[in-house]
Each structure stands twice: as C-alpha cells, then as structure tokens.
Amino acid sequence: EAGVAQSPRYKIIEKRQSVAFWCNPISGHATLYWYQQILGQGPKLLIQFQNNGVVDDSQLPKDRFSAERLKGVDSTLKIQPAKLEDSAVYLCASSPRWELFFGEGSRLTVL
Amino acid sequence: AQTVTQSQPEMSVQEAETVTLSCTYDTSESDYYLFWYKQPPSRQMILVIRQEAYKQQNATENRFSVNFQKAAKSFSLKISDSQLGDAAMYFCAYSYRNTNAGKSTFGDGTTLTVKP
Fold it and tell me: Which chain B residue has its CA at the smallest distance from A31's CA?
C-alpha cells in the first residue's frame, strides 16, 4: 500500500514570496490533515478536510495560508506572503478513522 | 481546550534496557483516544501504540506498553529491551473519540537516544 506522498521535500524562499505544498493521501482515506511542525515542537493542526469539504480550519492563518482538496483526493497548501516564522515542516496526514498516517513532510525555510 | 504535556525533552537508555517516557494531558471529555507516535530522524511519523480511554486494560504492542492512569490524566510509554532503532522523537497525542478521531493534539515530544 502506497503511503502519503508529499512534495517538495525541501523549499527555501525569501520572506514575502509564495510557496505551495502538495499532498496525495492514502487511497480510500476520506480525512486529510495539514499540520505545521516548528523545530522542537509537536505538530499543530492547520486544517482538516473530510472528502473535499473543510471540517476545521480554525487554526489556519487565513490572511496568508490557504488550502484546498481537489475532488476529495489530492490537497495543496499555499502560503502567500511567507513570513520568517513560517519556517517549519509541513506535515500532511490522512486517516481512515482514528490513526494518522503521515507523509515525510515538506521542510520550509524562509530567509 | 485539550493540552498534552511531555515534561522530558530528552531521555537516554542503554541498549537492551527499559525506559519510560512520561505524558500528561488535560481534557473535560470522558471518551477519547491517546497515542504514542514515533518520528525517526528525517523519516515519517508512525503510530507506536493506541489506548482507548474507556478501556481499563493497558495497551501493549510487542516491546511497547503503556501505563494509563485516567484519573491522574497520565499516559506513559514503556519501551522494553531497547534497540538502536528505537532512537527517535516520541510524541504523545490526544484525540476525541468521535467522527473527528484523527484530529489530534500533540505534545512537544521527547527525544530518545539509545546507547550501544
């Protein structure tokens, strides 16, 4: 069974630039999550999708972050404009029910 | 809001020995899940063990077991016969036991070093 795929693995940008991350969840997993993991901290939920609808985006900084899940499968997370404090690993996870299956993450460095 | 606290930023253990990682949480709910996830360096996070709050029996998965104290809101992970491959960051996590059961709150992790 293929795991959760994420790209790119690494991205370096300057502040005020934009960046997009892509996630392909495990086939059949209806729920998809984006987490932000700052160095030395645990993952923090940004947004949760159920199929192609948003369930919870209360922690998403909507002035600069946006996310969508097309046709209930792939998802993209965009940051525009990026700030220094956005430097983190962005983790995508999918879930059939209660267990989270994580991708390898996309590491963002904002200079 | 639910919070998860891991008070040990770093732990070390000698290979083949036993180590216990601590976790406390705060919730007003009575029915929930607790998890331990493992994140090896530069690799993806994977589930180690899960405990359902309504079950009194502590969960066990091979060398990994938990000590779940519901009244004390404590959830520790014991790793027996530690192996070099156990070296990783370990995260304790909490989740409602409902349709959003995958939406988890994580602690800040404990880095485990295994010495040969």
Answer: B102
Alpha helices (H) along B7-83: none
Token representation of residue A48: 């949760």
Dist CA B75 CA B95 (whole Å): 13
DSSP state of B58: P
C-alpha span between A98 and B99 (Å, rounded): 8
**Residue among B111, B38, B22 nearest B75 (CA):** B22
Q: Which of B3, B44, B96 to mutate to test the interface with A (most CBs of A within 10 A)?
A: B44
Instruction: Tell if the CB–CB gap between A42 and B101 is shorter than 8 Å.
Output: no
Q: Each residue of B44-73: pLDDT tens digit?
A: 999 999 999 999 899 999 999 999 999 999
With CB atoms and an 8 Å threshold, state whether A42 touches B44: no
Q: How far is CA B54 from CA A93, A98, B36, B59, B100, in A?
A: 26, 15, 17, 12, 17
Asked if residues A79 and A25 have their Cβ atoms less than 8 Å apart, the reply is no
Q: Which residues in chain A are contacts of B104 at CB distance < 8 A?
A: 45, 100
Q: What is the mean pLDDT of residues A64-92?
A: 95
